[in-house]
Amino acid sequence: MTEEELYTTYKGVYLPKVVHSTESLKYYEEFSFRPDDILIVTYPKSGTTWMQEIVPLILSQGDPELVDTVPNWDRVPWLEETRACDLNLDQRPSPRVFITHFKYDMMSTGFFKVKPRVIYVMRNPRDVFTSYFHFSRMASYLVTPGTQAEFLHKFLDGKAIFGSWFDHVKGWMSSAEQQHIMYISYEEMILDLEASVTRMAQFLDTPLDSEMIRKITDRCVFKNMKKNKMSNYSLVPSTMMDQNVSEFLRKGIAGDWKNHLTVAEAEHFDEFYQKKMQDVKYNFFWD
Ligand code: PPS
Q1: 132 Cα to the center of ligand 1, angstroms
Q2: Nearest C-alpha to atom 24 of ligand 1 is from which residue?
Q3: How far, in Å, CA of 31 to CA of 48, rounded?
Q4: Domains and CATH numbers, the chain
Q5: Rounded to a whole number, what is the largest CA-CA distance in the chain?
Q6: Predicted confidence (pLDDT) per residue in 252-287, tens digit
Q7: How far does the centroid of ligand 1 lie from the alpha carbon of residue 260, in Å?
Q8: Contacts of residue 63, Cβ cutoff 8 Å, sequence gap at least 6
Q9: Catalytic site residue 260?
């Protein structure tokens, strides 16, 4: 099916109609944030699901009950998703944790007024692309990606859902709310998950001893987290996500793009990246 059939255009970006109804987008626009809310912000395929595991475990000081019994989409709801309207989020105790894939300029008036805490997770866009390509093959609510070369054009042009990776990262990197935002990359988490969990716990004012940090890290490494049926999307019907085509927790590594992009595609990506990112003064982990 085509973009016209499967997607709606919202604030200039494509969103899949099945997952974001008009009602849910309105709900998000009117959502009442609290200052102690924790909002995990990601461009898709950058580590969202990983954070839906890590942050609840930090807040529970390593107690796994929540992550063992509640699916990630209920434990850390996706604010702009259709389901969020039905979860009585206004009755949840603080601190509440949510995710969003929205670009900075798509955030609601309530967000800018209240300024909740944000953890912004970013990932090498070449790996985001690779992960996204495989995900687009298995998720029935997304337009089938065509060839890798075709999807690369769409991705670089911001024609994938949630728009351009470049606009997303640049917008959040230059946000005016930086004192409320912690920036972290998927690659840092891969390299040293214990240090990453420690940094997040400090940002969230949750004291953790070294045993708790070790326990959380152990549960959240790819091979262990993949076994958690509350987090690996095995509860989603295969008509929606066909994990025989590609698993949701697919590879969980940094640098998989090298196994997929041709030399010409990688060069084209680099050129595009340099042009788009030339005005960004930030040492990204993958540069
Ligand atoms: S989504 O659809 O936006 O919610 O996807 P998202 O969760 O952001 O990204 C999916 C990728 O994250 C990988 N992942 C992990 N990597 C390492 N360790 C852990 N624990 C982990 N959990 C999820 C997942 O495998 C996807 O990346 P790829 O490269 O496709 O494997």
Answers
A1: 10
A2: 249
A3: 20
A4: 3-124+162-238 (3.40.50.300)
A5: 52
A6: 999 999 999 999 999 999 999 999 999 998 999 998
A7: 17
A8: 57
A9: no
Tokens of 65: 């009950």
217 in contact with ligand 1, CB cutoff 6 A: no
280 burial type by CB count under 10 A (0-12 exposed, 13-18 middle, 19+ buried): middle
pLDDT digits (tens, 9 = 90+) for 82-133: 999 999 999 999 999 999 999 999 999 999 999 999 999 999 999 999 999 9
